[in-house]
Amino acid sequence: MRLEASGLACVRGGREVFTGLGFSVDTGEALLVTGRNGAGKSSLLRMVAGLVRIAGGRLALMDADPDQTIPEQAHYLGHQDALKPSLTVAENLSFWARYLGGAEPVQGALAAVGLAALADLPAAYLSAGQQRRLSIARLLAAKRPLWLLDEPTSALDREAQDTLAGLMRQHLSGGGIIVAAAHGPIGLDHAKELRLGDSG
């Protein structure tokens, strides 16, 4: 499988964010997207996720399921954790698992991010870091080959960052692809790097 972009252009609010962007990421590889604020890191991830219109160029996921779009084969983890406060931790994750097409029980995903003991707690009582870990559990509750992670370590303490790094390495070793936007290291030492905004 390969995610490949050529000549990508992004326009937001009448402003050209980037143009002529190209990259490729193969099965088992991660791409770390870096750059100053406003360079287009989040816009690029949202474009791959189908949330921002492609203003120019081409984006393709090759050797993948031909009957599904790229967004249907991707997980997008953005800045917002998208949790319903009145639902429990388990209920929130079960909702997302069903919505995303997951078939496995969510207990394993909760255990993987250290939230199994809080399964029956309303999400309103979670700390910011716990909310982020619950969002990360969505990546495990429904299997998709492409992970799009926007500042995935936000609000995570060192232990949780290490847990996330391990989950990302497992995803890559299982044949997945990761594209992550970040201002600093996220625990993937061999990731490719795509720096945006150097010419601006």
Describe this structure in words.
This protein has five helices and eight strands, in the order βββαββαααβαββ. It is an alpha/beta fold and 200 residues long. The protein has a five-stranded parallel beta sheet with strand order 5-6-7-3-8, with helices on both faces. A hairpin with a 2-residue loop joins β1 (2-12) and β2 (15-26). α2 runs parallel beside α4. It is globular and about 50 Å long. The chain starts with a strand and ends with a strand.
Short description:
The protein has about 200 residues and is an alpha/beta fold.
Q: Overall 3D geometry?
A: globular
Number of strands: 8
**Major sheet attributes:** 5 strands, parallel
Strand-residue fraction?
A: 25-35%
Low-confidence stretches: none
Residues in helices, as a percent range: 25-40%
The span between the termini is: 32 Å
Element string (H = helix, E = strand):
EEEHEEHHHEHEE
Structural class: alpha/beta
Q: Overall pLDDT, averaged?
A: 93
Enumerate the strands of the largest sheet in spatial order, edge to edge or round the barrel.
5-6-7-3-8
Tell me the layout of helices and strands.
Elements: E1 2-12, E2 15-26, E3 30-35, H1 41-48, E4 56-62, E5 74-77, H2 89-99, H3 107-112, H4 128-141, E6 146-150, H5 158-173, E7 177-181, E8 192-196
Parallel strand pairs: 3-7, 3-8, 5-6, 6-7
Antiparallel strand pairs: 1-2, 1-4
Helix pairs in contact: 2-4
List the defining traits of the structure above.
200 residues; alpha/beta; five-stranded parallel beta sheet; three-stranded antiparallel beta sheet; 5 helices; 8 strands; 28% strand
